[in-house]
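Workshop exercise sheet. Pairs work together: one partner reads the sequence aloud, the other fills in the structure field after running the prediction. Swap roles for the next sheet.
Pair: D.N. / O.F.
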Amino acid sequence: MAGPLSGIRVLDLSRILAGPWATQCLADLGADVIKIERPGAGDDTRTWGPPFFEEGETRLSAYYMCANRGKRSVTVDMTKPEGQALIRRLVEQSDILVENFKVGGLKKYGLDYDSLKAVNPGLIYCSITGFGQTGPYKDRPGYDALIQALGGLMSITGEPDGVPGGGPMKVGVAVTDLFTGLYSTIGILGALHHREKTGVGQHIDMALMDTQIAVLANQSMNYLVSGKEPKRLGTAHPSIVPYQAFRTSDGHMVLAVGNDGQFARFCKAAGMPALAEDPRFATNPARVANREELIPIVAGMIAGRTTDEWTTLLEEANVPGGPINTMGRVFDDAQVQARGTVLTLEAEDGTPMPSVANPIRFSETPVVYDKAPPALGADTDTVLTDVLGLSAEEQAIIRASKVLG
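Structure field:
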């Protein structure tokens, strides 16, 4: 069955992660995504390894593979007039364009929004930059780690000062890029709906900095409401207790108590039901206020059993908690396997390639997994023929200009 965006064409001029994550989401939803890459080099992440997936004729970095499923790769040198003309012809046949060049970077090629909306008034043009198209920082480069720092995330991530390993810490994956990719997808879908009603496209200005601040969520609101700076708490939660990692007799686990009933059930399962009746701990606000007294008690209880013992005990008591899994344990997990989270895609040469499923589960228009991450320029000829309708002679003339690499 076709995905919900079947019939929509996306021109992907982005690279690295935020833009490619957005366009991969669109591809998963059934859109035809044409990825424009530099001849001879392609997306920077093609070389971001090891590890590399190397089977048969296929050699791709794992990083590139994570964000480029479902796309067609076309090599075009946009610095040449012939390349710019080719991209403009593709724009005429496209619904969406996604790019993450520096502010104004595409204007010199005639590929900025104002130039291209004259070619295609219905074009939805999404620009992704570090700081957006306006403001004093608009010309600065912005990478995920920098934005995690400037946007406040690192100030609330990591162990507190004064304990071993204390200090600011970035998150283990590029969450600012990933969230920006997802917000970009949301914005594009909104613009598609608007165009459906009006026939008019629009420019979407996405900034990593804006996204980072938006997804601080309760932490940013805690500050705006109280005026107090959030503190780094390691794995603990500022507003819920006990809600953090604990050491067991053979490893570590997380206990995630979200309400007073769960805390009472935890205490009963742990053999200390009276703890839940103690006025210092009976309610969540009281537990937050008396965190320093409660946590050592809970830690002492948890240290007496293995992780697996606690997992079983908490499941029986209907209390959220469980092991801190390694990647191996994640993909071996029965729930993960039952949900079909790991995919096997087929490369151009028939080589099976691993991938991770999109978490969206549609009842009527399933997510589309019909194309593995492409080799550089693998689809250039097909796109020139099928999308632009160029004859062999016309393609030969374009190739003679060296614009395709």
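Discussion prompt: The CA atoms of residues 131 and 238 lie 29 Å apart. What would you look at next?
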